[in-house]
Amino acid sequence: METAELEKKIRERNGRMTRVRKAMLDFFGTAETPLTATSILELLARRRITANRTTIYRELRFLEDTGVIHEVRIIGHGRSFELSGGHRHHLVCLGCHDVKSVAFKNHLDSEEERLLRDERFRVSDHSLEFYGLCDKCSE
Amino acid sequence: METAELEKKIRERNGRMTRVRKAMLDFFGTAETPLTATSILELLARRRITANRTTIYRELRFLEDTGVIHEVRIIGHGRSFELSGGHRHHLVCLGCHDVKSVAFKNHLDSEEERLLRDERFRVSDHSLEFYGLCDKCSE
DNA sequence: ATTTTTATTGCGACTATGTTGCAATAAGAT
DNA sequence: ATCTTATTGCAACATAGTCGCAATAAAAAT
Fold first, then answer.
1. Whole-number Å distance, CA B64 to C1' C17?
2. pLDDT digits (tens, 9 = 90+) for B75-86
3. Strand D positions closer than 7 A to protein CB
4. What is the pTM assigned to this prediction?
5. Rounded Cα gap, residues B100 and B21, in angstroms
């Protein structure tokens, strides 16, 4: 999603462009890994921006409700979030615990059709995480 | 996994068959949905088995280390666990919030090969969750 | 059947994570 | 410059999970 598009979405919700919100949009826009409330607080501290934990949690909820970000759940990691849009999946290294977001199409359409037929389950979204060893850790 | 096989694994770890452990193996063996520490405490209470929260958390870790169960992370739900073995994926209903474990093969082998080639990431496991509406909730 | 070994348990205290109400502040429209 | 109300900080709370230690209880040894 473009920065302009994000700001439009936020204005539609009567959102104001505060310092914390601007910084968080920047973080999410450039992060190559999902962010937790705690990691966001650390990123803010590095920019000398002080913010209460409560503010971060409320902001995360706001951005999620607005459709700007969505939640990601990964084994061994806290509740995290990343920018919406695109088909984001995750490579979770069991060695260094790094998480990399990767965007790619996959072949799950037929699977989702089968679930509708056999399980009468109407899929609207899915999440896919790969666990293993990254380049650095696989030696 | 068979009950006998589970007990063997536990004995290999010098594990003893306590009331709580037996009950938890039973719960995991019959549950069609992943279990959280809290839901296990409730199941125990129904059987008139009192147990401390700490015990449950320690037992979950023991069973995970032993390879009997593995962790499951689902958006909107607490940290949960289910029996290992088989290829378990999940159908998460956004209406009633029920989670159903389903075992099926999928077509991700070629994807995992591609990740090894393109990302130099050595996949050892993956998790796949489908979010949507179950039969009851999709009307 | 008793004793012995040590895995397991409960308890209390603690940390981390996340939420709520309310009064104070500040974005941005008028 | 003023006004409206979105946003913030704070304190208090709720929930989830962990740790050390002494007490208990499997189950092996006697």
1. 23
2. 999 999 999 987
3. 5-12, 15-20, 25-27
4. 0.93
5. 24
